Amino acid sequence: MRHLKILSTSDVHGFLYPTNYSQRDDHRPYGWLRAATLIRQIQAQAGPDDIVLTIENGDWIEGSSFDSYLATAVPEQAEILSKIPQALNYDLGVLGNHEFNYGLDYLRNCLAERNYPVLGANIDGGHAQGIIDAPYQIFKKKGVKIAVLGLTTAYVPVWEPTSHLTGLTFQSALATAQHWVPKLKQRADLVVVAYHGGFEADLTTGQPTEQITGENEGYQLLTQVPGIDALITGHQHRLIAGVYHEIPVTQPGDKAVAVGEIELDLDGDNQVVGHRATLLSTAKVVPDTTLSAQLQPLQDQTQDWLDTPVGHIGGASLQVTDHLAARLHGHPYLNFINQVEAAAGQVDIAATALFNDDVQGFGTTVTRRQVLNSYPYPNTLVVERVTGADLKAALERCASFFTLQDGQITVSDTFTTPKLALYNYDIYAGIDYTFDLTQPVGQRLRALSYHGQPVADDQELDIVMNQYRGNGGGEYPMFRASKIIREINVSVAQLIQDYLTAHPNVTGEQPYNLTILH
Q1: Spatial distance between the Cα atoms of 283 and 257, rounded to a whole number of angstroms
Q2: Alpha carbon distance 320, 189 (integer Å)
Q3: Which of 163, 226, 429, 457 could pair with 389 as two cysteines, CB 3.0-4.6 Å apart?
Q4: C-beta separation of 15 from 253 below 8 A
Q5: Does one domain contain both 291 and 312?
Q6: Considering the entire predicted model, what is its pTM?
Q7: Beta bridge partners of 433
Q8: Which residues are in the 5'-Nucleotidase C-terminal domain (predicted)?
Q9: What is the pLDDT at residue 377?
């Protein structure tokens, strides 16, 4: 009997070292260098009848300060990001949605030095653009033919500016798998689907857990594509391991907190007679010493770069210590980000999010480290011309973020389950608005005014926001590309630094334009 282990990392987001870069000596129980030690051990321990297949499942080149340093300060060294998996003999890679954040030229640089294929069956034009090698590949290992189909969430064009997707079209992961899996089943003993996407429904009951938009199609892959022997997923940063609808599934979180492991037992005809799925925690694993030493010069340069001062803050503190209070009442830090956005967009209504609760804001002396930790995404900005009715609908979506439990305000489960999505709540500047949390969701906006006057449904308003929200991301369908009147194609983090350079002494101010009734 042969034994196949499928190892996967996903959504590492450049967290190679066990740190979140919040300070120079920060130390965390995660990081890809820990995962590397685990992978090396499993590869080394494989017996004569054991097969190991290793997959990097996307969102690799963006997210951490290490990645930001490479992309913005030394892009000519970006090929290190493809050399690292190569050092561990990864068999293949799949592109995640964040691979496109810095544009195709940078992505090609990142993929330049590798000896493993990048697979993407549902990215039309990917081969011509030099970012995809093939839709699938059949690996022959110890007499077993293993077909791997690569898929990426089809929702990438919703988030990315068109300039980052030249020549590319994204097809449904489900439709693509329905086309390819039957063909691959005829050509190989096993079919593995590596999907940078997640689940739109409960894996057991099939009850929808989010709006069915095409962003996540994992449940449909499980239930509507016969012939899949193993399903690797990601994108949602969830910790999932189990057998669902007779298919073993993994999703190993983010920042390499775990390695996904699927085990398939094969009989003499290479048919699956047993399957298991588990997550291997990296928390107590020692980081790989060889790769740590190889990467240390870049890590040291990153830390020095992060400690560069970029501005000074006076007045009210821009440090965030109570995230729920900041979302309920506004905060000087959020007010400052909206100020930067409004200046860049040349409008007076701006919206920004606090993202998740690891955002710390700025100290008195602002360093690049603080900027990137507080605004970790390379979002650019758009200005949209919307109606008063559009704005009211967006604010109702924001108001649904909160719920009352025994008279206390907490965050609604829809923003925390199945995926933590606190970044889908926005704080606005340039308007005065009131939420009444005692009212049903959808009827909570009690008052809305602009320049002291009530906003009419047919009134036209120009609003600046990041391009993720501007394309409707986060279940904001009232915002869309057709309403964009201006684009600011500079990352928000860079806009913040440029603003601080132009205004080296910023005065923090607490906003008072949001009122919460409960």
Answers
A1: 7
A2: 54
A3: 457
A4: no
A5: no
A6: 0.91
A7: 448, 514
A8: 326-480
A9: 83
What integer pLDDT is reported at residue 102 of this predicted model? 94
Residue 180 is which amino acid? Answer: W
Would you state the torsion angle of the CA atoms of residues 304, 255, 363, 496, taken in this order, to the nearest 10 degrees? 80
Please name the residue ranges forming H helices in 211-277.
Answer: 218-224
296, HSE (Cβ side, Cα atoms, 13 Å):
8
CA angle 419, 157, 487 (to 5 degrees): 105
Q: Which residues pair with 263 in a beta bridge?
A: 5, 276
Residue 211, pLDDT score: 86
- Do 353 and 427 meet the contact criterion of CB atoms below 8 Å apart? yes
Which residues have CB under 8 Å from 447's CB, separation 6+?
432, 433, 434, 454, 515
Q: Which residues pair with 151 in a beta bridge?
A: 195
What is the per-residue pLDDT for 245?
97
Which stretches in the chain have pLDDT values below 50? none
Same domain, 407 and 360: yes
- CB under 8 Å to 124, separation ≥6 — which residues? 168, 169, 170, 171
Distance separating alpha carbons of residues 86 and 56, to the nearest angstrom: 10
| Predicted confidence (pLDDT) per residue in 470-508, tens digit | 999 999 999 998 999 999 988 999 999 999 999 988 999
The contacts of residue 20 (CB under 8 Å, 6+ apart) are 26, 28, 64, 358, 373
Structure tokens at 178: 């329905």
Instruction: Classify 321 as helix, strand or coil.
Output: coil
Indicate which CATH number applies to the domain containing 480.
3.90.780.10
3-state secondary structure (DSSP) of residue 322: coil
Separation between Cα atoms, residue 182 and residue 102, nearest integer Å? 35
**Same domain for 108 and 144?**
yes
Range of the domain at 270: 2-302
Token pair listed for 313: 């803050």
Distance in angstroms (rounded) separating the CA atoms of residues 472 and 359: 23
If DSSP codes are grouped into helix, strand and coil, which group holds residue 319? strand
Residues 69 and 33 in one domain: yes
| pLDDT tens digits, 164-189 | 999 999 999 999 999 999 999 999 99
CA distance 307 to 256: 25
Q: Are strands 230-232 and 247-252 parallel, antiparallel or unpaired?
A: parallel
Whole-number mean pLDDT of the chain?
96
Task: Find the DSSP H helices in 103-227.
Answer: 104-110, 156-159, 173-187, 218-224
Number of neighbours of residue 107 by Cβ within 10 angstroms: 23
What is the C-alpha to C-alpha distance for residues 333 and 12, in angstroms, rounded to an integer? 28
Distance from C-alpha of 337 to C-alpha of 376, rounded to nearest angstrom: 13
**DSSP reduced 3-state for 213:** coil
Pairwise CA distance, residues 270 & 392, whole Å: 59
Tens digit of each residue's pLDDT (9 = 90 or more) over 357-413 = 989 999 999 999 999 999 888 889 999 999 999 999 999 999 999 999 988 999 999
Phi-psi region of 77 (alpha: psi -120 to 50; beta: other; left: phi over 0): alpha
Residue recorded with tokens 């830390």? 303
The last residue of one of the domains, among 272, 302, 332, is 302
